[in-house]
Amino acid sequence: MSGNGARDGRDETSGSAADGDLSGRLERLGAQLDAKRPSAEHGSSPGGQQSGQSSAIGLAFRLSAEFVAGVLAGGILGWLVDRLVGTAPWGLIVCLILGFAAGMLNLLRATGAVKPVRPNGR
Amino acid sequence: MASPIEQFEIKPIIPALGFTNSSLFMVGGVALIVGGLLYATRNRSVVPDRFQAGAEILHDFVAGTLTDAAGRDGMKFFPFVFSLFMFVLTLNLVGLIPGFFTVTSHIIVTFALAALVIGTVIVYGLMRHGTHFLGLFVPSGVPVWLLPFIVVIEIISFISRPISLSLRLFANMLAGHIALKVFGGFVVALGGAGALAVLAPLPLLMAVALTALEFLVAGLQAYVFTVLTCIYLNDAIHPGH
């Protein structure tokens, strides 16, 4: 039954190649799986709070890594500039500040507050 | 009681070759991956048996992630991404077996993987798009007087990608294993503390819960690593869309 509905939907949306066909089918399958998954998870594990907590930890790790990486990259770059050009300590100072800015940019991009350089292709 | 850091110690096994326990587990992990996949694909029937089905699920999962992030063109990087995913996932999971060494809890390993990714992105991006690839660092719609700062910040942001990629995997694995070890240590310490021994099951329960969480984190971090790899590869394939 659902197969029938799916076929109708396909005919309406596209007079297109097998490519669009396949991706459309995969998308629908993905949507169906998504519909199944959360309920299955809730059924199997009573620790809903546990998973919420772990995703919060994951988010914290992710965001802190983004920020620290920005500062670190700025620091390394500044240190290298100083070493190669001999402008110590100005390269390090300036690049650390720029690295701080880059870390903030990473952070805001990771949280979605600033849009990425370009919209992600697909 | 053993220190929680002791588990990360690198011990030479064949000093002459620089072969350490880390190398041993990397070789073991690769052998496990190759052996497992060869075993899974030994029959290659239309109706897969359970091992072949598992291998197919892994393949489709990585292929789906890659095409979602980098489009159809991204599939030429499939062998690379699949190897990375399997390597990280296997070594994360192998590290959870008590007494085993966790290769991915060393930042030099994760950084080498991330450097490989970003190296591929830069080389492929420059090869295929030439200077157009550098447009990645020049966002559109920025006032001219601001441009030098923005470009430098974008470049630093780009350099920070392999660092954050490696840092995230490393920090997750390190923190998880230390937490497990610390709670395990609490069980022993409380067990030997006279009347307080009645409390000993509490950290034990926590250790059990943490083990489950660590399995989640091991899979999740391998996935996150793969997704970010795909997103970065997308920059190399379609810069400045």
From TrEMBL, chain A:
Keywords: Hydrogen ion transport, Ion transport, Membrane, Transmembrane, Transmembrane helix, Transport. A possible function for this protein is to guide the assembly of the membrane sector of the ATPase enzyme complex. This is ATP synthase protein I. GO terms for biological process: proton transmembrane transport. It comes from the Bacteria. The keyword Signal does not apply. It comes from Enterovirga aerilata. Belongs to the bacterial AtpI family. GO terms for cellular component: proton-transporting ATP synthase complex. The chain crosses the membrane at residues 59-81, 87-108.
TrEMBL record, chain B:
Its main location: membrane. SUPFAM superfamilies: F1F0 ATP synthase subunit A. It is a multi-pass membrane protein. GO terms for molecular function: proton-transporting ATP synthase activity, rotational mechanism. Signal peptide: none annotated. Keywords: ATP synthesis, Cell membrane, CF(0), Hydrogen ion transport, Ion transport, Membrane, Transmembrane, Transmembrane helix, Transport. It holds the Pfam family ATP-synt_A. It comes from the Bacteria. The chain crosses the membrane at residues 22-40, 77-101, 107-126, 133-158, 178-200, 212-234. One of its GO terms (cellular component) is plasma membrane. It is found in: Cell membrane; Membrane. NCBIfam families: ATP_synt_6_or_A, PRK05815.2-4. PANTHER family: ATP SYNTHASE SUBUNIT A (PTHR11410). Key component of the proton channel; it plays a direct role in the translocation of protons across the membrane. Belongs to the ATPase A chain family. This is ATP synthase subunit a. It comes from Enterovirga aerilata.
